[in-house]
Amino acid sequence: MPLIPEEPQIHESVPGPRATPAAGRTAPTPRPVPGPGPRPAPPRGAPASSARPGKPGPSRGPAPTPPAQRTAPKPSAAAGAGTAPAAASGAQLQLIPAPADGAVDAADEAVDLLLDSGRAPSEVLVLTTGDPHPWATHELSFGEASYWAQHDAADDVFYADAVAERAKGRPVVVVAVNGGSDETVAKALPAAMARAGALLIVCGDPQRINALIGASA
Length: 217
Known about the structure:
This protein has 217 residues and is α/β, with parallel strands linked by helices. The protein contains five helices and six strands.
């Protein structure tokens, strides 16, 4: 079913104003708003979230500096921008419009808001249809065994290729349509829908996404 982007809305369970996007992001992306599921809102007057530490895991010697990670577990909540009716799996579909070269940044901002709104990191899976997420590239540099061990531990946000069959479902799946052939994306979107337990957020070009969802329906 095509996803129809809507103007971002402020839900009563959304925390206050968000921090400025990380340096290096060239343009702001639409901010997602909380999705389904009752989640506790933070108390009024609570201090803003501090910057999150680096990616977890033991030191393995010299390596490229990993991207910023999202760690501290919190109660569940959800986020998304444009919304569409629930999929057959029961997951709500939400779309964040973004160009292909900005889809990963949009996905990262969606994850930030998910965690700030209360989602536990272990509830979130991020998939990319084109180049791997920088975190995945960094962790894969230490070998697939170590990389997939973090997936199996399921104690943090995990980043994987959208066509990786080994990636298991989670309550929230975020897809960055950052490239890939039409055939790849057309297969990846239904697979992502099947993996999402409560919410599927798709970041990318709405026209392309709607066309490919229609073609794969």
